[in-house]
Design brief:
The complex is a heterodimer. Chain A is mainly alpha-helical. Helix content of chain A is 74%, strand content 0%. Chain B folds into 2 domains: 66 residues, no CATH class; 243 residues, MetI-like (MetI-like fold, Orthogonal Bundle). Chain B is built from 14 helices and 2 strands; from the N terminus they run H-H-H-H-H-H-H-H-E-E-H-H-H-H-H-H. The chains are: A mainly alpha, B mainly alpha.
């Protein structure tokens, strides 16, 4: 069997995993994955090529026109930009591209941290039960009793303004962690009913060993789907906090902040490009994660769906 | 079921009162926790309330006097207990700055109806459109209709409100000039504070489309509906997308069940089976999601109000956090949490009605 897999190489190994095979035959999931990889390439390109200081600073007084429409509209002077420029004469094309780096970087940190903490709390609650379970899960219940964005808004108020997007990250981690804890606890409780866990304990396995070697791997599937779907949400919420003025600091090329400037400066004057391009990047990225998440859910055992929604 | 049977059915309690009471009691520790979190958050928040109230130029004595008046010189546990007691009576004191001198309670009672109105229209649109779309999509699985609905719904949940809102304003207000950009009613129209029913003066609800109907003012109603249309569409699209997705996947699971096949095998028509056996069972998980997503909807209302310049609870909380008006932040956040919790309680009760097994 193992030699067989080796001779067939990577593709063979992929086929050997029914989950991956299902996922790769799901057209929408492949589109989603392509979007995410494309956006990641854009993000890295922007991070390497552009200087954040230049994107953040005002370029008033240079040749670039203030609030110029995209260059391909009408007779274009030589200095016009692909996506136009904003009220501080900054290039919206470069800023939108750099926004991908900020969204994916802070999105990854937010989702990564809340997944890790949530998984830890969920597994511990399920395994130890009793008081531990009650203390952890009742705390999670309290956090879940707030509408998500409003809890994030209230939490953001604690942190000093100069933390920028980091305060949005901390607030959102506290908002998302309970969801992961709840999903993981449910999945872990199911695993704990299996006899092999009792057998492992009877053989003398220590608590950490049972948790890490036996329970964690069996809860990975629902966690992965939840994380992927949550990634889209995290990118929207990070942008929403910036949009409302509680995320990225002034000048940062984050999509949310660019959209907020678009509403401030462009709505009444009809300068649509201030809002259109950053929002388009944001929506496409989120769509990518939602497509992939949906595909993953379909590829999983349908009975798992209850645990995820 | 004939009409008499139907009326008898209505008269008997649909859910045992004991179940409802038990759920209500379970709320107490959660709300206690929620209030504690809000207290903790705002005590950790930077900024001295005395400076926020009196301004930077106030003398040290003035600041100290305000601190004593606000109770900030008392021990922390005493402040905490006072806060819990005040919160239980829904008394959050006076606004520091955004509505200076007015009680937080009056700020909330002025602005909550505005947000509720927006949320109700959005949610109603979501339920009325989302449920049928989800059912059609599931019944015609893998048809063109299904694909269009699914992709439409996925796009609907991926497009943020603070992008779709501005784009709609740009298109319909700035360029086509068919809808107003912001506000709730034409600035030339004024509404009184009360309305009259059988010669008695009654307070208005604060929900402008309801109030204009109560006043019988058609012109004002049309203006209010005209103003509310775009914001409601923005929220409604998002809500429709969420609900249709859930309804589809839930319906798909239900129509594969044995009891559906049995009903069809004994000769029941496809449509009747679908509505009688399919819909009710498929609705169970969807009801839960509608409850949970009500929280997202409230967040959506905050963003919508910011985009459309509607002065409801959402815009209030954003402004209050910006200027550190902590009593208003406390009051509004707690109100939102309470509202969300009550909606979920209602959902739990509905759930137990749809699936009586839960009551055990």
């Amino acid at each position: 069997m193992s030699t067989d897999t080796e001779t067939r190489g990577t593709l063979g190994r992929l086929r050997a995993s029914p989950f991956l095979a299902d996922l790769l035959t799901n057209r929408l999931a492949v589109v989603g994955l392509t979007i995410i990889l494309g956006m990641a390439a854009v993000a890295i390109y922007a991070r390497v090529t552009y200087d954040l200081g230049a994107l953040a600073g005002s370029q008033l007084g240079t040749e670039i026109a203030d609030r110029a429409p995209p260059g391909w509209l009408g007779p274009a002077p030589a200095n016009q930009q692909l996506f136009g420029t904003d009220a501080a004469a900054r290039d919206i094309y470069k800023r939108s591209l750099y926004g991908a780096w900020l969204a994916l970087k802070f999105g990854t940190i937010t989702v990564g941290t809340s997944t890790t903490v949530g998984v830890g709390l969920g597994i511990i609650a399920a395994y130890y039960g009793d008081v531990t379970d009650n203390v952890i899960m009742r705390t999670m219940d309290v956090l879940l009793a707030f509408p998500p964005l409003l809890l994030a808004l209230a939490l953001v108020a604690i942190f000093p303004r100069d933390l920028g997007l980091w305060r949005a990250v901390v607030a959102l981690v506290l908002v998302y962690t309970p969801r992961f804890a709840r999903v993981v606890r449910g999945a872990a409780l199911k695993v704990l009913e299996d006899e092999y866990v009792d057998a492992t304990v009877a053989l003398g396995a220590t608590d950490p060993r049972v948790l890490v070697r036996h329970i964690l791997p069996n809860t990975l599937a629902p966690i992965t789907v939840q994380s992927t779907l949550n990634f889209g949400l995290a990118i929207i919420d990070l942008a929403a906090l910036s949009f409302l003025g509680f995320g990225a600091q002034a000048g940062t090329p984050s999509w949310g902040l660019m959209l907020s400037r678009g509403v401030e400066n462009g709505l009444l004057t009809g300068e649509w490009w201030l809002s259109f391009f950053p929002g388009l990047f944001l929506a496409i990225t989120v769509l990518g994660f939602n497509l992939l998440g949906d595909g993953m859910r379909d590829a999983l055992d349908p009975r798992m769906r209850d645990a995820i929604d | 079921m004939n009409w008499t049977q139907f009326l008898f059915r209505l008269a008997e309690p649909v859910v045992p009162p004991r179940f409802v009471i038990k759920r209500l009691l379970l709320l107490i520790p959660v709300l206690f926790g929620v209030a504690s979190v809000v207290f903790a958050i705002l005590h950790l928040a930077p900024g001295d309330p005395a400076v926020i109230i009196a301004g930077q130029r106030a003398s040290a004595e003035q600041l100290e006097q305000i601190r004593v008046e606000l109770g900030l010189r008392r021990p922390l546990w005493e402040q905490y207990l006072t806060f819990l007691w005040d919160a239980a009576r829904f008394d959050f004191g006076q606004s520091y700055s955004i509505s200076r001198g007015n009680s937080v309670r009056s700020v909330i009672s002025d602005r909550l109806p505005i947000t509720l109105e927006l949320a109700i229209y959005g949610q109603a649109a979501g339920i009325l459109l989302g449920l049928p779309l989800g059912i059609i999509s599931a019944v015609k699985q893998d048809s063109l209709t299904d694909h269009v609905t699914r992709i439409g719904a996925l796009t609907g949940i991926s497009v943020p409100i603070f992008w779709s809102g501005p784009l709609l304003i740009l298109l319909f207000s700035t360029y086509l000039d068919v809808f107003p950009t912001s506000g709730r009613i034409a600035s030339t129209l004024f509404l009184p504070d009360t309305w009259t029913l059988f010669g008695r003066e009654l307070p208005l609800t604060g929900m402008i489309t309801v109030d204009t109907i109560l006043l019988g003012n058609t012109e004002a109603f049309l203006s209010a509906a005209h103003h509310l249309f775009l914001p409601a569409v923005v929220i409604g699209v998002y809500s429709t997308a969420l609900i249709s997705r859930m309804m589809r996947s839930s319906m798909l699971e239900v129509i594969r069940q044995d009891y559906i096949r049995t009903a069809r095998a004994k000769g029941q028509g496809a449509k009747i089976t679908l509505m009688k056996h399919g819909f009710r069972n498929a609705l169970i998980p969807v009801v839960t999601v509608i409850g949970i997503q009500f929280g997202t909807l409230l967040g959506g209302a905050v963003l919508t109000e910011t985009v459309f310049g509607i002065n409801g609870m959402g815009l209030t909380i954003v402004t209050a956090i910006g200027v550190s008006d902590y009593p208003v932040v406390q009051g509004t956040v707690l109100t939102f949490a309470l509202l969300f919790t009550l909606v979920n309680l209602f959902v739990d009760v509905t759930y137990s009605y749809l699936d009586p097994r839960i009551q055990q």
